[in-house]
Design a protein that fits this description.
- By secondary structure, this protein is α/β, with parallel strands linked by helices.
- It folds into two domains: about 110 residues, no CATH class; about 200 residues, no CATH class.
- The chain contains eight helices and 14 strands.
- Helix 1 packs across helix 8 and helix 7 runs antiparallel to helix 8.
- The termini are far apart.
Length: about 375
């Protein structure tokens, strides 16, 4: 029994190490960030001409720099697909209950949910109208893409009626897009996925290091809105934004930085599994001034802690079973990455849910302040 536990621990440790080494750093930078105010609206810009056969369009978006405490624009760009048949699902910002959380984009055989955001150029909120794979060739819809047909011959034209003219860049929260995943998008979430390719990671890093792309500097109207290739911020084919994104950040606090909610313990420590989380915190003892009420509240707190510990154990067991199957199937690196990324997301969501439950029970049990008329 001991040897089996040690073996499973070794497998899990290996999988985590493999995932940490293989996963792009920029992906980790996005996961778990929770910002108290939403990103600017999406700027209006033209699409650069497709540089060649096999390139797929990845729309621009606002990312968050935790060090600089500001949003910055990641220009839209053309990227070579990592595999034949794979499509890009853009990342998006969504309200997470305590702040705006960024959900990373990914490659897969189908386009999944991207928040209902209208990124344009085929990404109008649901699905993708910019092209399709036919065997080993990608065919471009010239009705929504700029393609030089002297260079790219795999083209067709399918007019798209786009009634979504909203430029809001986030889902949920105050003023956000009110959309939920459709059935086919939920199914796409269960496909085999690949993270952003190296060119995309380097593209994000180049955007982050460019002061002109900071929202505080360009006020939502980035001077580099899109590039013909990843990282080509100085290419002659770069296009500028024609209209800005109306950036209205909240007033800065005393230390001259925008207010930002802290990420959960799961994201702060790059936690992948429930067993790696700190122990469930017991809420502060109730003190209403009524002994009987305090005892009742104490029992409610204990039941909550027991239920949360049980939910952690259940998720841990489920994830360990998946680790066993990965080892038995001798899963590929990409499959391992996909599973470990899902485990991290599951753990983060569980931790955020538990934190919200703790806050709710404390608010419910707080002594009622008396009012005088």
């Amino acid at each position: 029994m001991v040897s089996r536990n040690l073996s499973m621990r070794a497998v899990r440790t290996f999988l985590i190490a493999l995932f940490m080494l293989a996963m792009p750093a920029a992906s980790f930078a996005q996961v778990g960030i929770s910002v108290s105010f939403g990103p600017p609206e999406l700027p209006v810009y033209e699409q650069p001409v497709c540089p060649g056969d096999g390139y797929l369009w990845t729309p621009g978006y606002w990312a968050w720099d935790n060090d600089g405490e500001d949003y910055y624009w990641v220009p839209g760009t053309w990227v070579l697909a990592p595999e034949v048949g794979f499509l890009w699902t853009p990342g998006y910002w969504g309200w997470g209950g305590r702040g705006f959380v960024f959900y990373d984009g990914y490659w897969g055989p189908h386009v999944g949910f991207y928040g209902g955001i209208n990124y344009g150029f085929g990404y109008f909120g649901h699905g993708y109208e910019g092209g399709r794979w036919d065997h080993d060739h990608f065919y471009y819809n010239r009705a929504v893409n700029r393609v030089d047909e002297r260079e790219v011959h795999n083209v067709y034209e399918s007019r798209v009626v786009n009634e979504n003219n909203v430029r809001v860049s986030y889902n949920g929260g105050s003023g956000g897009i009110n959309e939920r995943p459709r059935g086919e998008e939920e199914a796409a979430a269960r496909d085999r996925h690949l993270p952003p390719v190296r060119d995309q990671v380097q593209h994000v890093q180049a955007a982050r290091s460019n002061p002109q792309l900071r929202a505080a500097s360009n006020h939502g109207k980035p001077p580099i809105a899109a590039t013909p290739r990843p990282g080509a911020l100085n290419d002659r084919g770069v296009v500028t934004a024609k209209e800005g994104g109306h950036y209205n950040p909240p007033a800065r606090t005393g230390n001259n930085t925008p207010s930002r909610t802290e990420p959960s313990a799961a994201s702060r420590n790059n936690v992948f599994h429930p067993k790696e989380l700190p122990p469930v915190q017991h809420p502060a003892p109730p003190n209403t001034g009524n002994t009987r009420t305090d005892q009742k509240y104490q029992q409610q707190q204990e039941k909550l802690v027991q239920r949360q510990n049980q939910e952690r154990q259940n998720l841990q067991q489920k994830q360990e079973q998946e680790h066993q199957r990965l080892a038995q199937q001798k899963a590929s690196d990409s499959r391992t990455q996909q599973v470990e990324q899902r485990h991290q997301q599951q753990t983060q969501q569980l931790q955020q849910k538990h934190e919200q439950q703790q806050q709710q029970i404390q608010q419910k049990q707080a002594p009622k302040s008396s009012t005088h008329k």
